[in-house]
Amino acid sequence: MIRILFADDHEMVRIGVSSYLSAQPDMDVVAEADDGGEAVELALKLKPDVILMDLVMKEMDGIEATNKIMNKWPEAKIIIVTSFLDDEKVYPALEAGATSYLLKTSKASEIAKAIRATYNGQSVLEPEVTGKIMTKMRQKPVEHLHEQLTDREMEILLLIAAGKTNQEIADELFIALKTVKVHVSNILGKLEVQDRTQAVIYAFKHHLVQ
């Protein structure tokens, strides 16, 4: 049996979903909570297999409750079930440690399916949530690209900006010319530029050199 804790401040939602889940042959709703604080207390006391967590609740919201649970019980498997898809809800919930993210518009059968998947170590996300995550990954600010450089690559970038040739860089750092060329290639790739000139422009633009 998959032991479930359901936290939601809407009684009718809890009754409807809990009734459906309890009717499943492999599920048992062992407890319900109507606010985040109670959810934390019950989660740490009962150690359910899966926790269904609403986001907006009185006294303590689902994000704070998820944080508290995960801090004291990192193995917890939490599914967010909410009406919200805005960024200030999605990202904090996932960063807090939620395993899955569903909308309350999901059918009860879909919630049950997500519970089984989460119980088995999988992550279930609404398509809109997956899209948000992918978009955020693609929109990494250009000013952070140089943070990907290793210390050696940053050193070589500064030497390039100083007008050094590959051979001069190799001589100054006591490394092989071939090694310098590999580093330069990596630098261009990480900075998403085409050549050394563009790399130098990047370095000046972002105040890496005076």
From TrEMBL:
Any single Pfam family the record assigns to this protein: Response_reg
Subcellular localization, as worded in the UniProt entry: Cytoplasm
Domain Response regulatory: 3-119
GO biological process: phosphorelay signal transduction system; regulation of DNA-templated transcription
Coiled-coil ranges per UniProt: none
Domain HTH luxR-type, first and last residues per copy: 142-207
Keyword Transport (UniProt): no
UniProtKB keywords: DNA-binding, Phosphoprotein, Transcription, Transcription regulation
Principal cellular location given in the protein's record: cytoplasm
Keyword Metal-binding carried by entry: no
SMART domains linked to this entry: HTH_LUXR (SM00421), REC (SM00448)
Molecular function as annotated in GO: DNA binding
A cellular-component GO term for this protein: cytoplasm
Protein's recorded name: Two component transcriptional regulator, LuxR family
Lineage: Bacteria, Bacillati, Bacillota, Bacilli, Bacillales
